[in-house]
Amino acid sequence: MKMIQLNLIRLVGCMGVTITMLGASCQHVSKSNEAKLNESSVSATDFTVMFYNVENLFDIYDDPKTGDEDFTPSGKLNWTQERYEAKLEKLAEVIDDVPGDLPALVGFAEIENRKVLEDLIKDDKLSISKYRIIHKDSPDERGIDAAAIVDTSRLSVEYFNFTTINLPNDEDPYTRDLLYIKGKSNGEVIHFFVNHWPSRGGGQEETEKNRIAVANVLESQINKIQEIDPKAKILIMGDFNDHPDNKSIQTVLNAGVEKSNRLYNYMFDYHANKEGSYWYKGEWGALDQFIGSQNLKNSTKGWTANTAHFFKDPKVLFTDKEGVQRPNRTYAGEKYIGGYSDHLAIYIALSYR
Fold first, then answer.
1. Which helix (H) or strand (E) holds 209?
2. What is the per-residue pLDDT for 177?
3. Taking the model in full, what pTM does it have?
4. CATH number of the domain within which 295 lies
5. Nearest Cα to 101, choosing from 2, 225, 200?
6. Average pLDDT, stretch 15-29?
7. What's the pLDDT tens digit per position in 25-58?
8. Where are the alpha helices (DSSP H) in 263-327?
9. d(C-alpha 87, C-alpha 117), whole Å
């Protein structure tokens, strides 16, 4: 088990208010408590940020508002308490095994509700960090959400919001909310976005407009941040369901590896070399990515992030009969495999100069 210094700062309960800003449902720290939180000395010499699409982390109970019936003991996947607890144990193991101390922030995709995160952070490997949960139920018809856990001893949470996005699709206009977190450590602000973009189900080209719609919302929010602070340090993470060279990322976000790119894509070169976090039809692809502002990548003062990685520990992989390694997933269709996830986790170290 990893040991970290505990100089905990209590994350003050947020007061939820709804504002009109790209359809966002926003959570604020009250002014009196915000002052107390900002006066606290939250500092770290370095920390890790992680993103993990955890492949359908559902509890075992039927939510009548969502399509989660398969993930119940009587559902076709026979999703039992035993299988649920085994899944939690495996996910906690991955978070614990990422190099360095426990991540200061973990972004998630495919979280059913707040309860599953509460159960996850109770694991002995994670409970030492006193993680705090940032989650809101989204309008996604399957009931899966983007969410995060944050260790506020190393990264204070100044503000967060969830943006609801309407897709240009009359039959299925809903997707996961876009999560924004304004964090602060060593007196410097870092802006985080956690994404889970619409799937490619139905074909990459046929569904591209949905991901472009989300990219446009994200790009607009980045604009607002950089209009206020052109040197803002921004770290974007998620399962984009597009690759680094697809239009939504390379063109709309203008993310790549050139100095002329507005944003730096930490996974661009990996993907070009046929490395990635997701295995599909015999190839790895970098659907899960970290994208940062150029000022975060190239900073000579304050927080900086240089290199991102895929978590490719042998335990999260299995070798098929052809000798090919791929993610060791929980289910293959309706067959229970008992693995970790169909995606690999990704992680990146932030250092303070």
1. helix 204-228
2. 98
3. 0.90
4. 3.60.10.10
5. 2
6. 35
7. 444 333 333 333 343 468 888 999 999 999 999 9
8. 268-272, 294-297
9. 12
The percent of residues above 90 in pLDDT, for the chain, comes to 83
CA nearest neighbour of 182 among 155, 207, 202: 155
Q: Quote the CA–CA distance of 253 and 232 in Å, as a whole number.
A: 16
Cβ atoms of residues 307 and 266 within 8 Å: yes
pLDDT digits (tens, 9 = 90+) for 218-268: 999 999 999 999 999 999 999 999 999 999 999 999 999 999 999 999 999
Q: 1: pLDDT confidence band, cut at 50, 70 and 90?
A: low
Residue 55, by phi and psi: left (phi above 0), alpha (psi -120 to 50) or beta?
Answer: left
Q: b/e per residue, 204-240, with b = 16+ CB within 10 A?
A: eeebbebbbbbbebbbebbeebbeeeeebbbbbbbbb
- With residue 158 as reference, give the H or E element that holds it: strand 156-163
Please, which pLDDT band fits residue 170 given cuts at 50, 70 and 90?
confident
264: Cβ contacts below 8 Å, ≥ 6 apart = 255, 256, 257, 291, 292, 293, 294, 296, 297, 298
Specify if 8 maps to a domain.
Answer: no
> How far, in Å, CA of 180 to CA of 166, rounded?
17
The alpha carbon torsion through 86, 97, 306, 8 (nearest 10 deg) reads 90
Of 149, 150, 158, 152, nearest in space to 182 by CA:
158
Q: How far is CA 207 from CA 45, 53, 133, 270, 308, in A?
A: 42, 20, 31, 24, 28
Domain membership flag for residue 3: no
For the chain, the residue count is 353
Looking at the structure of the chain, the number of domains it has is: 1
- The residues, ordered by sequence, that sit 6+ positions from 132 with a Cβ below 8 Å of its Cβ are 11, 149, 150, 151, 152, 157
Q: Are 261 and 219 in contact (CB under 8 A)?
A: no
pLDDT confidence bin for 148, thresholds 50/70/90: very high
Q: Does the residue 5 lie in any domain? A: no
Q: Are strands 105-111 and 46-57 parallel, antiparallel or unpaired?
A: parallel
- Domain span at 163: 15-352
Task: Let me know if residue 49 belongs to a domain.
Answer: yes
Token digits of residue 201:
């189900």
